[in-house]
TrEMBL record:
One Pfam family in the UniProt entry: Spo0A_C
Any GO BP: regulation of sporulation resulting in formation of a cellular spore
Protein name: DNA-binding protein
InterPro entries cross-referenced by the UniProt entry: Sig_transdc_resp-reg_C-effctor (IPR016032), Spo0A_C (IPR014879), WH-like_DNA-bd_sf (IPR036388)
Sporulation initiation factor Spo0A C-terminal domain sequence ranges: 20-116
Record key words, sorted: DNA-binding
Coiled-coil annotated spans: none
GO CC term, one of those recorded: cytoplasm
Source superkingdom: Bacteria
Molecular function GO terms recorded: calcium ion binding; DNA binding; DNA-binding transcription factor activity
Amino acid sequence: YIKMTVSTPLERKIEDMTIDTILSLGISRALKGYLYLAESIVMCVVKPDKLYCLSKDVYPEIAQKYGVDMSCVERSIRHAITKAYSEDPTPMRSMFRRPIQRPKCQELIAECADTIRRVFY
C-alpha cells in the first residue's frame, strides 16, 4: 500500500482502486512515479479541486511527505507514464476512449481520478 494516512473504509477502497487502475495501465510498482501518481490520484479523488492546482497543492505536499523536491515528483510521474506508454500504449488509449499521444501528468491524473470518483460518489 501507499504510505497514506487512510482513515476510513471508503478511503481504503479508493486507494485499492487507484492501485488497480495504475497497474492496469502498465505502470510498474518499482518506479517512484508509481507511488507519487497513486498519491496524486487519491488526493484528487477525495478533493477534486486539487486537480486544478497540482503544482501548487498536490506535488509540494507529496514532495514534503517523501523528502524530495517538487520537480522530482512531477518528473517521476512523467517518467512512469512515458515508460508504460512506450511499452504498451493500448491501456492508456483505452482509458481515454479516443486516440491520444502519451498523456500529460495532469491528463492522466484527471482521467484516473474522474473514473474512480464515478464509482464512489
